[in-house]
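User: Reviewer 2 asked us to show a designed sequence for the structure in our supplementary figure. I'm pasting the structure tokens here. Could you produce the per-position amino acids so we can include them in the response letter?
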């Protein structure tokens, strides 16, 4: 699904660029002079986990499905090529963890992790000069992520079938995108890489737990495709 969406965006982008360079009709000529503007975005994501271990012999395979993200955009113009951006929104995704070193049935060796996050990214957007009706940019920054699906306060752990994650997390993200100036709005697709800063795992009460005892670091990483409209 992700490949199909990327292909559609690529074809649409090339079509827009070709049409704009041919027609040379300049849309939204005063748009970039605004100090503040607002917008919204929607898109899909593909997230899994970066996992490191204290020693060899413990392995977790992660299978993830495509999720969605939706939110708002607040943009402050600092310079003609630099913008400060706040993008609060929701991100949801489902993962399945397979503990390949644990013998037994799915009850012991599989865990489903359903996570919905409130993400509040603070980003710096660095744009090139505008060329006709498109403008490429780089974007990056940090985000506070609140996990609504966290069971951090649950006293039960993996011995009771509960895989626990932290509520409060921090990530950083970097990406590239293009602003397309259309007659009635700005269309801005971008691709972002998102990476956890802190360890998100709540260890089991037993320090020798086969599920979490040998895990040194457990943090989200993923690719976000965002389609923004201003």
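Assistant: Here is a per-position design you can include in the supplement:
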């Amino acid at each position: 699904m992700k490949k199909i969406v990327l292909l559609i965006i690529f074809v649409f982008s090339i079509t827009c660029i070709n049409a704009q360079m041919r027609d040379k009709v300049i849309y939204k000529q005063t748009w970039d002079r605004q100090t503040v503007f607002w917008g919204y975005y929607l898109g899909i994501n593909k997230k899994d986990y970066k996992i490191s271990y204290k020693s060899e012999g413990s392995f977790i395979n992660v299978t993830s499905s495509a999720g969605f993200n939706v939110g708002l955009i607040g943009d402050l113009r600092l310079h003609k090529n630099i913008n400060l951006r706040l993008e609060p929104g929701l991100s949801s995704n489902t993962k399945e963890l397979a503990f390949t070193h644990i013998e037994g049935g799915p009850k012991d060796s599989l865990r489903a992790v359903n996570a919905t996050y409130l993400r509040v990214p603070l980003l710096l957007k660095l744009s090139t000069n505008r060329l006709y009706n498109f403008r490429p940019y780089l974007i990056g920054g940090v985000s506070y992520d609140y996990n609504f699906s966290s069971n951090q306060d649950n006293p039960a752990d993996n011995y009771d079938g509960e895989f626990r994650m932290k509520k409060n997390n921090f990530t950083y993200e970097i990406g590239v995108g293009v602003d397309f100036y259309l007659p009635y709005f700005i269309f801005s697709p971008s691709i972002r890489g998102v990476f956890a800063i802190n360890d998100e795992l709540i260890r089991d009460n037993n320090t020798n737990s086969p599920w979490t005892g040998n895990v040194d670091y457990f943090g989200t990483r993923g690719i976000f495709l965002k389609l923004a409209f201003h």
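For the response letter, you might also mention the following. The two ends are 25 Å apart (CA to CA). Strands lie at 36-53, 60-64, 66-79, 82-86, 89-99, 110-127, 134-147, 168-181, 186-196, 215-229.
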